[in-house]
Design a protein that fits this description.
Length: 147
Amino acid sequence: MTCRALGVDPGSARIGLALSDEMGFMAHPLKTLAVRGKDAVSALALSAAEIAAVASEKNSPVIVIGLPRNMNGSYGPSAEKSRALAEAVAPLTQARVLLWDERLTTAAATRRLHEAGLDSRAQRQIIDQAAAVQILQDWLDSNSSAP
């Protein structure tokens, strides 16, 4: 069976999206969503609707949302926002919505982009997608039968 998993790197200003190949082996950058809304509640609802729409459009049976953890394993305010996003997306899609530990994914993505020769200004345009790729690839690698 071929299907594509959707990876999500949630942020307060932008949300990076990544999509696996049809075999579920490799994650690829997809796009960056701007967080819109006049307040946190409307921004959450709009972001959840956009993510659910992309999952539907791409026939993604799994949505993997990054869950930021502190290095000691504890959770902070960003983790609560990720949980809220997952809870908002779930009723809008038939896809399974999962939270995945995203510790150091942005650092790894930044390092890869730097190694590819992109300066920090060029990285700003794609770092969210690169972090989503890292989140999704980590999940794919740990789930060899994914999705």
